[in-house]
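@channel anyone free to eyeball this complex?
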Amino acid sequence: MKKNNARCAAVLASCLLAATLARAEDIGRVKVAKGDVSIERAGARVPAIVGAGVQTADVVVTGSDGSVGITMNDDSLLSAGANSRLSLDEYAHDPSTNQGRFRVSLDRGTLAVVSGRIAKQSPDAMKVRTPSAVLGVRGTEFAVAVGR
Amino acid sequence: MRSDADVIRALHDRPVLTFLMSLVLGALAGCAAPTSVVLLPAADGHASALAVEHRGDTVVLDRPYAAVREGTFGARAYQADPQEVESQFATALAAQPARPARYTLYFIEGRDTLTDESRQLVATSLAEIAKRPVPDVLVIGHTDLVGSHASNDMLSRQRAELIRNELIRLGVPAANIQLVARGKREPVVPTADGVAEPRNRRVEVVVR
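replying in thread with the prediction:
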């Protein structure tokens, strides 16, 4: 495995770039962030930088030039376009059994979803709510918009 | 439940009232931002479906580009196309994180050593980890269906730990690795309980 040394250094460097290390309460992580993106948590608003963890009850907000991509711990992918407001209402996942429950709300804007292990294990365990509809996710890829 | 369209139909012979009703309903629907939903083709080719519940009615979208759009008189199901998706969702889709990459590793029968092929895959997974800006690595242990859940959970954890330790030795920080023991819950080769099946004894490495 000697030949791997150079590669190891690269791996190490890339991991160290992830200044924000995963915390127990994190349910996912921001992997892509462009333009104005922030996270509202417990009344405070912090910029959503690449590497930031997201937690239950976080509200992810993008501005007119913003977009954001989040990978959840169950491998779900959520990505929102400009002028969007996405609430991570509820998230529970047992990685051993993949049993869980995932609820998000899109209040405005656009959202693309690739569902993950929770929805694969139990159809309808993942739901996406908009102001006028509820989407029961049986897998796997879809997009939803609120507003024109 | 009467839909908006039914109400309108009932008022059909009263054109002025119909017009006023449509204004009222339009205003009601317009006050909330309308929802539109489209099912996309799954990248892995698997069948997928979405149940869209709208004012008590449920529409199931179960083929690529099946869509529902909320309008003045309720929701309308229709077939969208890639151009429409692109124009509405280009920014959201462009922000989609890289798909998780998966590698399945096998040990030499009865030993703690990986097969040559799996050794190669470890190198491939390291390259993938290095490529991603904020990598998370999931190491998932699996067993065959011989024995109890408890014993297989322990065994799958031990297998996953071997791989985790190897990844750490190769430079992946421990904080970026999560260990999962799936035990006998997810055989790749379906068998009856109690059947020894080497292809089910494996460790999955997921890079995301």
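from a first look: The CA atoms of residues 148 and 166 of chain B lie 27 Å apart.
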